[in-house]
Amino acid sequence: MGRKGKRKKPKSSAHKPLKSAEKSAQNSPQNGGPNLEKKPTKARLVVTHSTYIPGLIPLLEKLANCPEIQTITPAVISRVKSNSPTFRLKVSVPIMGGHKLIARQRKSAQEVFVITHWSKEELEQAITRHLR
């Protein structure tokens, strides 16, 4: 227990600083505040692995500048039997909310997950634009 007579009085809620969630609720358009919501102009590029196919990250950074792409996540890297002498990035299969890509170079392949509302053809066109 503390010292006798030295008990702190509870502070009134009128003097508490607002938490960030409370500030955003106060400034929301529903509460008469300004509309501060902006769509992010650059996608989030998740860089968590220590190993990537050479040339993959610079290309993904270029793709991340497309406003239609929300998130790019490089995933599993594996060894494959066939050889791809040049770097290739191919749209593989649709996933929930986007597409899975396969990056290939030499005897390595790496999965890349892209969250976007683009169709397969639109994503392929964006990739070919940035591969040049």
From TrEMBL:
InterPro entries named among the record's database cross-references: DUF2103_metal-binding
Sequence ranges of Basic residues compositional bias: 1-18
Superkingdom field: Bacteria
Compositionally biased tracts (Polar residues): 23-33
Spans annotated as Disordered: 1-43
Name of the protein described by the UniProt record: Metal-binding protein
